[in-house]
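Q: A reviewer asked whether we had any structural model of the full assembly, not just the individual parts. We don't, so I'm hoping you can provide one. Inputs are below.
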Amino acid sequence: MTDKPEAKESQIWGGRFSRGPSAIMEEINASIDTDRRLWREDIAGSKAHAHMLAACGIITDTDNAAIQNGLDQIAGEIERGEFAFSKALEDIHMNIEARLKEIIGEPAGRLHTARSRNDQVATDFRLWTRQVCGEAEAALKALMRALAKKADAHADAVMPGFTHLQTAQPVTFGHHLLAYVEMFSRDAGRFADARRRMNESPLGAAALAGTSFPIDRKQTAKALGFDRPCANSLDAVSARDFALEAVAAAAIAATHLSRLAEELVLWTSPHFGFVKLSDGFSTGSSIMPQKRNPDAAELVRAKTGRIAASFDTLLIVMKGLPLAYSKDMQEDKAATFEGFDALALALTAMTGMIDDLEPDRAAMKEAAGRGYSTATDLADWLVRTLNMPFRDAHRVTGAIVALAEGAGVPLDALALSDMQSVEPRIDENVYAVLSVEASVASRASYGGAAPSNVKREAERWLATLSKES
Ligand code: ARG
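A: Here is a predicted structure for the entire assembly that you could use as a starting point for your response.
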């Protein structure tokens, strides 16, 4: 790597330097390719800071007006794609400040009074994270709405419920979808909690110790929508647990998304055939003309890796850092951005798939009857009707299932005489509980799979979600 002795010293911090950074120093130091995404937050923070400096008599109103106009002009330039970002200017903060100097001259140099890039970046990053937590919450609610709508439409569509991916007991498609609504509502709650906790302003903590200028941190906190200023200047510039909490919530939500994605992959396979995705959400194979692949579901499943990795990355960046700021913390943003980008895409794609999918009710019902899924209903009938202890009923039912298996018939097609050969007190009333419909209808305990419960729950969710949107 060649040094560039002729490189100019940084115009922002180069006062004590006689030469500029080497090429590799500039390369490793620059974060502009990543943190340029923070331009809106950076300009909002600077505008609030300048207004406060003027209100506190630290800069003149004339200088403040020039700063405000200059920052508005820069926002327009960036918005229109006209802004020339420079690696030599390291990061978004110095890129904007340098441009401000070009536009308004001397007053630009007064903006950084009572401020450091340490509290500046902490503020920008909090504002950004607060915003994406709100967006993730809204996207989760859109997904929950799509799920609740499908659940409402298919509250009574019988499907096999699984444990160990083996047929267990009949449930309904609506009940299965509402299980995800519960999970995603907790995810939304985690983003709301994180958002509330992070809503304190680091601005005015300056480099690490606060400032000798008579600033008003409450004013800038309020202007930026924070509940209050962070109470400790060292914590204000060093804390990144707000981002950790946000990406942790993202990683948990991604885990839920990947489980649902996996179910879509299974359900759309011809071996299950429970669900069909339209052409809009299927892809073909370049060699096998018959294929309809659920690529979007597979990619949602895979995105979980990136999202969980963003939590790992951030955790490891922060681990063991002494107070206060260290440059390590510049690596916080790429991970967080990547995690939230992937989450947004996965949530939107999943909502699209849920809206799109059509369940094959007949296929699901047929599958629900396979695998002796109503064996528990038979055992429960023995308990209820013959007052048998459940453990004995379990053994008797097992023997009857073995008979049916031997005869190659489902339980409700086994002859009464065969059942009576195991337990003579069984009568023909038993058949009423052996169908899959009777089975789900009987699961009317609170939170159970009975269609009446599912319908009520789907409608409760739809009402709650329509109030919140
Ligand atoms: N680009 C830096 C970051 O993202 C800004 C803070 C720089 N502060 C400093 N003392 N070098 O962390």
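A: Points you may want to mention in the reply: The radius of gyration is 31 Å. The beta strands are 158-163, 166-172, 200-201, 228-229, 275-276, 358-359.
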